[in-house]
From TrEMBL:
Domain Multidrug resistance protein MdtA-like C-terminal permuted SH3: from-to ranges: 301-359
Taxonomic classification: Bacteria, Pseudomonadati, Pseudomonadota, Gammaproteobacteria, Alteromonadales
Protein name stated in the entry: Efflux RND transporter periplasmic adaptor subunit
Subcellular compartments: Cell inner membrane
Signal peptide: none
Gene3D superfamilies, per the entry: 2.40.30.170, 2.40.420.20, 2.40.50.100, Helix hairpin bin
Taxonomic source organism: Psychromonas aquatilis
Pfam families referenced in this protein's UniProt entry, alphabetically: Beta-barrel_RND, BSH_RND, HH_MFP_RND, RND-MFP_C
Residue ranges occupied by any Multidrug resistance protein MdtA-like barrel-sandwich hybrid domain in the UniProt entry: 62-203
Protein topology in the membrane: Lipid-anchor
Domain Multidrug resistance protein MdtA-like beta-barrel, residue spans: 209-293
PANTHER family per record: ACRA/E-RELATED COMPONENT OF DRUG EFFLUX TRANSPORTER, MULTIDRUG EFFLUX PUMP SUBUNIT ACRA-RELATED
Amino acid sequence: MLFTETKKYLLLLFITLNLIGCEDQSASTPPPSEIHVDTLTTNYINLRLSNELPGRVTAFKEAEVRPQITGIVKERLYEEGSEVKEGDTLFLIDPTTYQSTVNSAKAELKRAQSSERNAQKEMVRYAALLKKKLSSQQLYDQAEATYLEAKAETEISQAALDYANIELSYTKITAPISGQAGFSNVSEGSLLTSGQADYLTTIIQTNNVYVDMQQSAVDLYKLKQQFKDSSAEKASVPVTLTLEDGTSYQHQGRLAFVDTQVEGSTGTVTLRAVFPNPDKSLLAGMYVRAHIAYPEARDYLIVPQTAVVRSQSGAPSVYIVNEENKVEKKSLTLSNEVGSNWVVEEGLEVGDRIITNNLTKVKNGLTVVVDSNKSTDQVVAENTTNTLTTDTEK
């Protein structure tokens, strides 16, 4: 009996101590502090955007110089890296054999011409005798046939001489286009063969250059819609370049060509722009970033990149403060990158107050204190640059 009373007493004491401890703990817990945030009020910004694409510089014209006859290189007549004009002699092949062929063809032509003249005189003589009825028609016909055969032989000999002269002219390997000649892949004494795969040198014309870009078919359709919806009668398509070191190329180009087929393996379409290159600063094979400007400026809503939060799947959203100073989360559809900001296609309205700091502490329905508020105009003035680009992977 005494043991039971003692047990009850200890249980009562334990419960009392626990209640006292809970009261002390609750009394020591401070009330939740207010979260202070800064906001950005959205409004329309007038911008002329551009679509950024990776590109490679290619020569406006490029020719690989190859021999058209077989022979030994006698001399190289150009300086590597120099500017050459169309028709300038670059290499000289030993012409001895081909000159001999020309001489032989000339001799054959002279003999054929002599035979032709004799046959013609014979035909004229028989024609006179036939007219006087001193010769038969058969003899005249034979004389005429001999003359025609001799004339044909003359034409054959003339063709052989022309061909020999052509081959002789090929001993002078000339520049097919004007431009800058490259390294020579042969030296004096090298044996060249007609139709060989290896080229002797290259000539590149770079006063103007091409920039070839790859654009997804879907994004190309969107870009075309921008120009289709343009209010301009003839929307221009200017293109600018950013070099590998981040500097802007000083000359503006233009979009010259859009391929008519989509590459099956990548789903992309090739676009080609033409750029002036007077100082030869753009070299064939260089990697650049091309910016295709939209046809006109339009009004857009923008949001700072630092204010955008993303879900595990990468979907973008922002937190805004409503009229009751409570937090709301809005999903966004983004398009263009403007400096350190995104252009918003869907999800925001003019006048929304976007939270720009303490993003890890805010959540839906939470009441916050707004310390400061900026407008979109101020953010654009502080953070945007002259280069407007598009990130197509949103």
